[in-house]
Amino acid sequence: MDVTCIGLAVMDIIACPVSKEDFEDDTNYLDTLQYQSGGDALNAALNMAALGMDVSLIGRAGNDPAGRSLLETARQGRVKTSGFILDKEYATSTSIVMVDKKGGRRFAYYGKCNDQLSVADIDVSQFKTGGIVHVGSAMALGSLDGRGLAELFKKAKDRGCTTSLDVTWDRERRWLPKIEAALNYTDLFLPSLYEARFITKKETPGEIAEFFSGYGISNLVIKMGNRGCYLTDFKEAEILPPAPGSVVVDTTGAGDAFVSGFLFGTKNNLTLRGCAILGGMVASEAIGAFGATTGVRGKFFGRPGETKKILQKAIEMQ
Q: If you placed Cys at 314, which of 19, 148, 251, 278 could pair as Cys (CB 3.0 to 4.6 Å)?
C-alpha cells in the first residue's frame, strides 16, 4: 500500500454563481448545480489513485444514498475501501459549495458523521513499512483530533510509515490544541497560509516555520493559493510560484490536489522542491473544472502516459 488516507468524506453540492448579494433576495437562479464527491481524505485518495498510486481510504459516511454513492465513487476510482464505514445513525456529511464568478468558494457544512471517526475505527495492521499515512481535514474530525491523532501517528511511525497531515478550518477556533501532540510524530505538514496563521498566531511564512521548528516535523509546506507555496526542511526555505495551467473555474479541492501531487512525488523519491513542483502541476489541473477531483481524474485516470509526463517534468525541474 503506497498511501492510507484518513479523514473527511463528503458529498459536495456545488452551486454557481453565488455572491454575498444573492442572500438579500428571495430567489436567485444558478447556472450550475452539481453533486460531486468531496472531503480532503476522499479527494486526495481519488487523485492519487488516478495518478496510479495504491491507495486505501478510511473514513465514515451515512448508510444512505449519498454515502453509498461516495463509496461507489471511491471503488470505481480504484481506491481500496475495506476501512470505510457506512454509519447507520448519522447522515452523510455534506457541504453546500457556493462558487462565485471568479471561482472562489464558501462552504456550508454538515459534519456529524465525520465527527464519529476515531482511532477505534482504524486498523493499523494495514500500515506497512515505507508507506504513507495521510490525515486530511484535521480540525474537523471531532473524535480523532487531539489525543487520538497523536496516538494514530505514533502507531504509524512505530510501523515504519511516513506521516502526512493536512488541516482545515476549525469551527471551534481551538486550532493548535487539536494537533499539537500529533506534530511530534508528523513528518510532513501541509497547512494553508490562512490556517497556519490561526494555528501559530504568526503572520509570515518564515515566522510560521520558526514556530513549528520546535516540533518533530521534517518538512513544512505552506499552501498559498495563487502565490504558490512556501517549503522548508528547517535548514533551507523557498517560495515556489504557482504552476501555470488551467483557467480558474472552481478552486474547490485545489489544496487536496496539491497534496496528492506532493505525495506522489514523495513515493517517487523526488526532492522536497520536486514534490512541491509536482503538487503545483496537479493542483493546476484541479482548478480547471467543477468539483474537487474532476479535473485531476479527467486528466490522469487510466492515462499513465500523462502521469509519466508530469513526473518527468517535475524531475527535470527539481
A: 278
